[in-house]
Give the backbone structure.
Amino acid sequence: MKAIYVPHLLNAVHQTRLLSFETHLSALETLVPIRGELSVSHCKTYIEVKGKADTIVTLTCDRCLQCYNHRLSLDTSELIWLEETAVAEQEPLEREVGVEELVETLSPHGYFEPDTWLYEQLCLALPQRQICDADCQGIAIEEAPAQSSSSPVDHRWAALAALQRQLPDAQP
C-alpha cells in the first residue's frame, strides 16, 4: 500500500480515502494474505483511520511449545492528531514519555503509512497469552528414577560437580 499524502485527503470525495487490500507484510509472518479494508478520513484537526482485516498466523504455545494456527481479526479505529510540531524524523527506540504525550500525531503536510498502521494494529491484536487449547497441560515431564545424592540431577552439571570435588574444601 502506498503512503497517503495528508493534504491530498482534502481533495478526496468526502475527504476520505478507502483502501481494499490483500497483502503480506514483511514484518509479520502470516499463512494467508491479510485481507481487509481501510478508511482514512481528514477531519480538519485530525485524521480518522478505521480498519477491518483478517488473517491467520502461526503462534507457539506458551505452555507446551507446540505451534498452532490462530485466526487474527481486526476491527478498530484510531484518531491521529494533525500538528505542525509532529516529529518527522526517527525517534530513539527508548525514551521516557509523559502521559500528555500518549497521543498519535502526524504533520498536516506529512504522509500516513497504511502498512505501518496495519502492522501495529495487528501486533496489538495478537493474544498476550498464547495458549493452543484451554485444556493444554504443558510439557509432559517424565519422572526420573531416584538418584543418589552424590550424582548431579542433570548430566550437564557433571563437569561442575567434578570441579567441585577437586577443591580442598569441597563438600558434596
